[in-house]
């Protein structure tokens, strides 16, 4: 079983819809990262969370440490939000390699 | 722009060959991470350097090696290349090199082994 699970794997929605992508993890973490990867391939770091909630523009990320769960929300979605969204965790010291452990990503398509 | 520079952007080479990928971290960042993204394995952590020293190892093959130089740029060396090594290789940098330090990713090097 993967240490980081994302759902859904694929999501197609209409422009303007509220989008939610979920991430569950099974290890102790020091932080959780949400990343965005566009078709060109580059990766952009959206959020790094260790507790609570963060907001940047139309993007909101939340984390529940007790439940080992995080969500990424996109409000008023737009076709330019179409990308792969990847959840990744930094394990706690002693819990494994310091590099990130990644989910398989959620492929989001926003149709006009 | 993340401030992380990776060269080259694309690399096409033959099986058995050796290549070197280069990464210049964001100004002020001491830690460099290397990641591999392949279609079947997804994103995987390879290795981390902090201020010139190896800090952590992930799923890095013995045919692969890396180093970080005094000016903090890093190189990933891939040798005896196989078809399965074809992938996107990303470099990321962070200031502190700890698990809760924000990461900045380069645009990647796309390696094709024929």
Give the topology, please.
The complex is a heterodimer of chains A (about 110) and B (about 110).
Chain A lengths: L3 E4 L2 E5 L4 E7 L3 E9 L5 E7 L2 E5 L2 E6 L4 E6 L8 E9 L9 E2 L3 E6 L1
Parallel strand pairs in A: 2-11
Antiparallel strand pairs in A: 1-3, 3-8, 4-5, 4-9, 6-7, 7-8, 9-10, 9-11
Chain B lengths: L4 E3 L2 E4 L5 E6 L6 E8 L3 E9 L2 E5 L6 E5 L5 E5 L8 E8 L9 E2 L3 E5 L1
Parallel strand pairs in B: 2-11
Antiparallel strand pairs in B: 1-3, 3-8, 4-5, 4-9, 5-6, 7-8, 9-10, 9-11
Would you mind describing this structure in some detail?
- The complex is a heterodimer of chains A (112) and B (114).
- With 112 residues, chain A is mainly beta.
- Chain A has no helices and eleven strands.
- In chain A, strands 2, 4, 5, 9, 10 and 11 form a six-stranded mixed beta sheet that branches. A five-stranded antiparallel beta sheet of chain A has the order 1-3-8-7-6, with no helix packed on it.
- Chain A is globular.
- The mean pLDDT of chain A is 92.
- The mean pLDDT of chain B is 94.
- Chain B is built from no helices and eleven strands.
- In chain B, a hairpin with a 2-residue loop joins strand 5 and strand 6.
- Chain B is mainly beta.
- Chain A binds chain B through residues 29-31, 33, 35, 41-45, 48, 50, 86, 88, 90-93, 97-102, 104-105, and chain B through 2, 33, 35, 42-48, 55-58, 88, 90, 92, 97-100, 102-108, 110.
């Amino acid at each position: 079983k993967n240490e980081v699970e994302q759902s859904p794997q694929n999501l197609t929605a209409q422009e303007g819809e509220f989008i939610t992508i979920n991430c569950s993890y099974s290890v102790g973490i020091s932080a959780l990262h949400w990343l965005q990867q566009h078709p060109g391939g580059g990766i952009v770091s959206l959020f790094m969370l260790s507790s609570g909630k963060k907001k940047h523009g139309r993007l909101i990320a939340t984390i529940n440490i007790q439940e080992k769960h995080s969500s990424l929300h996109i409000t008023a979605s737009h076709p330019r939000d179409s990308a792969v969204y990847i959840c990744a965790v930094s394990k706690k010291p002693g819990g494994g390699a310091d590099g990130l452990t990644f989910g398989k990503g959620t492929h989001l398509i926003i149709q006009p | 722009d993340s401030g992380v520079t990776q060269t080259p952007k694309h690399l096409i080479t033959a099986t058995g060959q050796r290549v070197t990928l280069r990464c210049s971290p964001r100004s002020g960042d001491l830690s460099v991470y290397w990641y591999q993204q392949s279609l079947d394995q997804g994103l995987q952590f390879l290795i981390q350097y902090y201020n010139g020293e190896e800090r952590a190892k992930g799923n890095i093959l013995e045919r692969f090696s890396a180093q970080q130089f005094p000016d903090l740029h890093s190189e990933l060396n891939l040798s005896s290349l196989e078809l399965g090594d074809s992938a996107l290789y990303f470099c990321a940098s962070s200031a502190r090199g700890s698990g809760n330090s924000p990461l900045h990713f380069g645009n990647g090097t796309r390696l094709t082994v024929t």
